[in-house]
Amino acid sequence: MSLEAPWLKDCPEFIELEIAESVASRTETLSTFRELGPPDLCHIIKSPTKVGTTKDSGSYHYVSGVDASSSASIAIYLNELLRSLDLPQGWFTPNAAWKVRSGTYCCYNAFSRLDVRVQVSIPGGVDSYAVDLRGQRHELSSDLWLETYLSAHLRAILYADDPNYKLYGYRKFDPIPKPEDEEKFLAASQHLFHKGWQLGSDPEIQVATPISNHLTTAILKYFGDSGRMSRAANLFEKIAESQRKTSGEKVGCEVDALTAKAYIGMNEETLAIRTLNRALNVSPQSWPLLHVQVDFLRSKGQHQWAVQLARQAVECSPSEFVTWAKLTDCLIDIEDFEGALLTLNSCPMFTYNERDLHRMPTPIKNHFPIQKWVIDSQLIEDDSPKENEADITLLRLPAPSLRGTFARAYELLTRLNNCIGWDDLLKIRSNVFVMEEEYRQHKSDDSTATIITSDNVSAQTQTQASNEVIKQPAIPTIKISSDSDHEREQFKKGGLELHMEDSRGNEGNTTDETVNETSETNDTNQSDNDSRGLSFSDKKLCERWLDNLMLVLYEDLRVLTIYKAERSHFKSQQMQYRKTGTEWEIIGDLCLRMHNKEDAKEAYQRCLDLKFSAKSFIKLLEIFANQGDTQRAFAAAIRLTAYNHRWYNTSVYPNAVSNQLFKIVRTEGVQKLKFMTMSLGNDLPIQSQLSKYWNYIESFKVEGEAF
Question: Composition bias, kind Polar residues: at what positions (predicted)?
């Protein structure tokens, strides 16, 4: 008899050192879950048929998309696993000496903060119960099952293509495979809508509200990405009417912000305007209603009106990051760059909380089987270790590690830089913010005067800022990789200029980047301030986090400038510019951050010439879909479909591939993609997988399914 337990067929597994240690670890960390919770956990115990021959074996994997509406629906999934031992030699061979004794399925209820568990034993039956934060058991009611069902679906929708939620051994199924399942999801969402604020919200929202939470975000994402906002509009209409009857007109008007957004998404702009008009007459100080108007006006090119409404939204909710960020966007639209930088500096920043995940004990072994058709298709290539190497400067770029409000603020800063350039950005920065040298000069001229640089910043705080001892525990300090600390000091004092110096020698051209200090004399600063009407006391104190983001931007621009200069040099010399696949991928990400899509596309394509990169394929798929390049988008979708099945993601929607394919379907129609699928010839497995997208489009009436 084999001493090792057989694996589950086509299912990832982590083998435990001690039986059920994964479930025990999950129980211990229940109190750390803040929002939607971790993915579902499935634990299996395998036993030898002959007692005493060897020990039991415990394994586990992660799951999403399983129907968690009852113990019976979960038991169906467990029973499929219990009968899926990989026994290639038949039942009358030594491998048949193993059997699955029991299985436990854990699903987190984010509404009631309970972990619902279903245990199937063979022989035996099905036992279901809930575990609270203290590890105590509770009976399950129909309301708890409904909350568990909706919690599982929200995780499956929101984390389907979230890059911050990647796990090995994570099986993903369709959360809503049939239209009747969608009706069930809508009914559950309507029933639990008033509890949505308990789930938390996006990192950019400080406090979750009844209309700004994970539930409403998931509904808009699910129906918005598939172009079926009419279903969302109908749902929000019912909820708004119900809220008016139970909680009053004002509460119902808050939901009208979601209804109007859904109307705009389905091109019913007249209905959206009427809904907004009615709601604003009742609740004129609602920033979600104002933001819907702002987005609508920006789409119509009425940027001046949008700025006025964005300012009003800030006045209504000055403690929210999104209101300040929206105003910054609008000010950039009207080219008020100084106002945009000042507004960005005023944004309230929040500490980013990582996704709910729990640490598992280190498994003694893992198993990640590959389906045979994926291997035969040869759509996924093995990577060369050399192509996974990268220069340390590229690996240490700090921008990819930004999260939450800091990532969004950096996106606004890069947009501002893209509009005016680095030099003008530094000039604007010195015009609106107090520079350290300027402060010291002013202090030496009048050491006894009280210097006021901001209405809400005291003189003591300014002195601490000038000496660089301001400490804000909630804001992470971003360390920049540079040649010397002198460059960083020069940046803080007045600004930096980026330029490249090309020197040619006997062996060819070499490119160096130099950073020059562009500090001006005190007389020049004074004359500039006088000409602009900005005296020293009119300037603001730049927040430390914004200074850090400026340094992050400088580092990105420095590396990008070096790359462009080297590329031009090699091109002029008719020489091949060599980099590893990972380096090209990082450069592609860098170009995207700097809003240079063409250079990003070239970098991603060069990356794919050297290695298989799912990230590069996803980025290219999005670029091709937005550009209407159907042929190349379809080719990228084929490779990504095989990659998803390799890593147990069999979900058709929502995921990154279907989101981009639906964009093409809206303009080209589904029939064209069907013919392209048929043209693949005898590659039947990949044809079968692609056909699932087209079947979904026809079953759920996605826009473009009729032609």
Answer: 459-469, 506-533
Contact 194, 210 (CB under 8 A): yes
- In whole angstroms, give the CA distance from residue 670 to residue 661: 9
Distance (Å) of CA 333 to CA 239, 337, 344: 35, 9, 14
- Dist. CA 378–CA 694, nearest whole Å: 23
Place of tokens 């009729």: 706
| Lookup: tokens for 200 | 């938390």
Instruction: Using the CB atoms, write b or e for 48-69: b if 16+ within 10 Å.
Output: beeeeebeebbbbbbbbbbbbb
Question: Would you call 143 helix, strand, or coil by DSSP?
Answer: helix
Pairing of strands 98-109, 114-121: antiparallel
Query: How does residue 470 score in pLDDT terms, banded at 50, 70 and 90?
Result: very low
pLDDT at 105 over 90: yes
Torsion angle of C-alpha atoms 60, 66, 67, 69, degrees rounded to 10? 40
Place of tokens 């909706």: 150
Q: What angle do the packed helices 656-668 and 614-627 form, to 10 degrees?
A: 20
Give the separation between CA 266 and CA 247, rounded to whole angstroms.
Answer: 28
Q: What is the sign, positive or negative, of the torsion defined by CA atoms of 386, 387, 393, 396?
A: negative
Non-local CB neighbours of 545 within 8 Å, separated by 6+ positions: 349, 406, 409, 472, 475
Peptide bond preceding 348: is omega within 30 degrees of 0, i.e. cis? Answer: no
Question: What are the pLDDT digits (tens) for 532-571?
Answer: 435 556 788 899 999 999 999 999 999 999 999 999 999 9
Classify strands 508-517 and 365-367 as parallel, antiparallel or unpaired.
Answer: unpaired
Rounded to whole angstroms, how far apart are CA atoms 692 and 653?
A: 10
Q: What is the mean pLDDT of residues 62-69?
A: 94
Q: What's the Rg (C-alpha) of the chain? A: 29
In the three-class reduction of DSSP (H, G, I as helix; E, B as strand; rest coil), residue 70 is classed as coil
- Judged on CB neighbours under 10 Å (0-12, 13-18, 19+), 508 is exposed
Residue with tokens 């750390």: 32
Residue with tokens 């006088």: 530
Long-range contacts of 383-386 (CB under 8 A, 24+ apart): 383/581, 383/611, 383/612, 384/610, 384/611, 386/580
Asked whether the beta carbons of 393 and 481 are under 8 A apart, the reply is yes
Neighbours of 33 (CB within 10 A): 19
Cβ 332 vs Cβ 416: under 8 Å? yes
Q: How far is CA 232 from CA 148, 222, 280, 679, in A?
A: 21, 9, 21, 36
Residue type, 614: A
Mean residue pLDDT of the chain comes to 84
What is the phi/psi pair of residue 562, to 5°? -60, -45
- The DSSP bridge partners found for residue 509 are 504
Query: Where do the domains of the chain lie?
Result: 1-173, 380-439+539-612, 615-706
The answer to whether 616 and 585 are in contact (CB under 8 A) is yes
Given the DSSP bridges, would you call strands 170-172 and 57-64 parallel, antiparallel or unpaired? parallel
- Which band of pLDDT confidence, cut at 50, 70 and 90, is reported for residue 195? very high
SS3 205: coil
